[in-house]
Design goal:
alpha/beta, 10 helices, 13 strands
Amino acid sequence: MILDDYGWRPELAASFTAIARPGWIPGRVCAESHEIYRLATEQGDLVADLAGGLRYRAASKAELPTVGDWVAVQPVEPPGRSIVQAVLPRSTQLVRRAAGEKEEAQVLAANVDTVWILTSVNRDWNPRRLERYLTMARSGGVLPVLVLSKADLAQDASELVAAARALAGGGPVHLVSTKAGRGLEDLGHYLRQGETIALLGSSGVGKSTLVNFLLGEERQKVLEIREDDGRGRHSTTRRELFPLPRGGILVDTPGLRELALLSDLAEAEQVFDDVESLAANCRFRDCGHRGEPGCAVGAAVAEGRMEPERLAAYHKLLAEEKARQERELYGSGGADRRRWKAIHKALRK
């Protein structure tokens, strides 16, 4: 097993040496299910459990190992399971807010260099969802690449490509078709030894088909999209890491039904750089772009230079970030009290 093929780097070796004890070896998490991990190590694939101390020290689930993490593992001879003793520091991570009302982070993948955000050119096109994917990637320090898949289904996808480039703000955009073999050579430029690429997108956009093409074998099950609404079903059921024959490492993920963010405000503003650029020309420095006099953003919407839906998405993302920051400062109860206090004050007026 050559760990270099899985992205092993000098800085990781230094981190491992600083914490390692006799008998421990480094490994990378390739898959996880109910805190049982499949690891790639110099001794081959190992199945491992968490050390009790590691679980006890973790302040949240986000600090426990996830797919893509590098860990220090204590090997155990089969049929026993090896033991994950520590998680090495992450260079990047893809994080969303876990489903449910509780404010909790879910790390989808760690130590990712590039994320391919897939959306098909049929009925899957959703600019608001793509904005959230872009925000999540940039917040985690990952390079986002928009990939418009199933190009064979569109007679002319030029308008979608232009819209995707506007969303990406100068970032890379690729139009591909695995079925027709179109645009795949462009994606090949990202496949370099030791580089980790994650795939994100909703169900039915062609992630599993692309994974099978890159692996050169039918590893992932492919399901047909539904005829009535053009949407797909979940064919990938868990996150998994694969080394690729052409070089590089691929992390495949299930289709995401929802994407609530735990994002940094600066990264959200970077995704909406067109709004921020216009805002510099507003009459008032603290303009909220909600009908204030001299609002350059509102003027752009009125003149058709910006979609009202994009401005609404901008407001929604900022509101979510503000609410998250309030919960961190005051707790969920404190945030609710502040909200109801503002409501009662408005009613009195």
